[in-house]
Fold this protein.
Amino acid sequence: MKGRIDNIEIAAKSSFIVASEFEKITDVWDISKGEKICRFNSTYGFGGERIAISTDGKYIVTGSYRKKGLVLYHTSDGSIVWIRSDISKIQKVKFSIDNMYIFVSIDNKNILKISINDGSTLEKIKGAANIFFNLYEDVYLLESKEYIIYLNGRKASRICKESFACLDACFSNITVYISEAAKSISSIDFAKNQFNKLDVIPAFASIRAINYKNEEEIWRFKPCVDSHFLKVKYNKNKNVLFSILRIFENGGNRFLYVFNALTGELIDTAPLETGFYINKFDDYGNLLVSSDGYKIIIYHLDNDLNNMEKKELDVIFE
């Protein structure tokens, strides 16, 4: 029986991508050659963001909410480096830019800083749900009840959180781009003591561009009703921001948007392939990888979205 791709990740500084089926098979591909490097069984758990590949493409880490915790693999052959079976309730895993650490979000409440060398826990960051790194400066953002910017290891600024969830964030040199979810709230019928249907409040969905040094908002873009931006990624060479918009209705169709990173001006938009529900940018905003679960499409991003170069890979899990 043919399996199904459940997630894809891209190595920032190599041509490797990872395609995984939950708790079964993981494939590593060299997309520059269109060749599969290796295949191995992994413990990648359903839901969350529980798989990552190091920026140099040498390691893959997988997490699981209940089974076998955190596992580090060699990308070349899928061999295990170490296992932390004591860690549970893993929601997200990320490598640091220098590939020295792995950051593990535990139940979106705390983050563990793990040594890549031996898997030991070096630090527990309490109250943090996610972490986002700046590729161009020694800066990172912690998502908690608010957004906290750290510059050279010290708290530099705070940014208010306008929604219940940060969908994605990325940096340019001095700007952080934050995409927040449309906020769903339940109306309560007190007479019947019950929750009614969820209502989407679209005003809470937006991309905000904020100067993280002085906390001033530079621009803001609000999408159409019943939609929000799942992913945002800055491209330094083009000085643009690429984004993936999801429409809630009609099967959750996806659209690719490109903005002027300085002004927020919308440059172009184009629909993505219908049914391709997995969409990931590389860290530098050069590539977009999409999948419908069986086929992978690799786009070379350009401001003219309707004339992008693309190629396809067929990945079969059996």
Notes: Residues 133 and 140 are 4 Å apart (CA to CA).
